[in-house]
């Protein structure tokens, strides 16, 4: 299992960094260079990474694996129609974030992007710590700490120019498993609108998805 942990650490490092060589990976992960080379060779053989000059990067094989996960995962499959409807109602980008099994990160797995010319940078495929300031992390963290119901939280960051909110999705056991989120450029979404317009829409959307997962509102 330790060998597998090391191999997955290498894959995760490439996901974060984009492109890296054997020496860099060895130094950053404190792994023997020969071990790193063997790990990379194995991933390359299985078409999960590819070599670019003397460095390595993730290949299309990872996309295939990711698509398989998204296509099969019930939360993603059931959420997409709700995301489309929510985007149509409000006209801004709507995201779906899921909570990882260790409850340390939220991962953005689906998105319906606004057609407006000014957009927030896509979060699709990105991972954020549960302690981050993105609204999905904040809402899920509150739910993990024991707050009941379809927990809501918001973000309003003048530095990044992003405004939005998120509402927790629960499964058939009532456990928080993800969040539905709406984000927009700050100038299009003032704080008052988040509370008065966005929150009710997100609560309805989160309840819809939760009910599809078997959640029963008490």
Polypeptide structure, described:
There is one protein chain. The chain is an alpha+beta fold. It has 2 domains: 2-65, Winged helix-like DNA-binding domain superfamily/Winged helix DNA-binding domain (Arc Repressor Mutant, subunit A); 73-212, GAF domain (Beta-Lactamase, 2-Layer Sandwich). Helix content is 45%, strand content 24%. It has 7 helices and 9 strands; from the N terminus they run αβααββααβββαβββα. The chain has helices at 2-17, 22-29, 33-45, 60-72, 74-90, 135-144, 191-212; strands at 19-20, 49-52, 55-58, 93-99, 105-112, 127-129, 152-157, 162-170, 176-185. A 6-stranded antiparallel sheet has the order 6-5-4-9-8-7. β4 and β5 (105-112) form a beta hairpin. The termini are far apart. The mean pLDDT is 87.
Keywords, separated by commas or semicolons:
six-stranded antiparallel β-sheet; Arc Repressor Mutant, subunit A; 2 domains; 9 strands; 218 residues; alpha+beta; three-stranded antiparallel β-sheet; Beta-Lactamase; 7 helices; 45% helix; 24% strand
Task: Describe what is shown at a glance.
Helix 1 crosses helix 3, helix 2 packs across helix 3 and helix 5 runs antiparallel to helix 7 (191-212). The protein has two domains: 2-65, Winged helix-like DNA-binding domain superfamily/Winged helix DNA-binding domain (Arc Repressor Mutant, subunit A), CATH 1.10.10.10; 73-212, GAF domain (Beta-Lactamase), CATH 3.30.450.40.
